[in-house]
Hints:
The chain is elongated and about 70 Å long. The protein has one domain. It has helices at residues 27-48, 60-63, 66-76, 85-99. The protein has 100 residues and is an all-alpha fold.
Amino acid sequence: MKIPQPVYPPPPHTHTQLIEVSQPLSPSMSCIADALLELIHMCIKDLQRSNKLDTTDLTLEQGIFKAFDEIVRRQLDPVWHTVSAKTKQVLYVYGGCVRI
């Protein structure tokens, strides 16, 4: 059985060059990003006041990642029935801010 040959020869060995392109935020986009970060920061401060959470990982730097939401929910899952409505609402608002 004969193995078919490729139609096009492979490209010669060349070095790949990575070019990074970035677009600066417009003033409106910058204002929106700042407002979202402020909302996330306020939500984290509210969560730190909750006595049901381990607050060592509750920082703004950690708060902008999706894994943070999962960590907080995992901590609150066993005691979810005792979590106040305000804390649940803060978590809902936080999730919305991070998704945006």
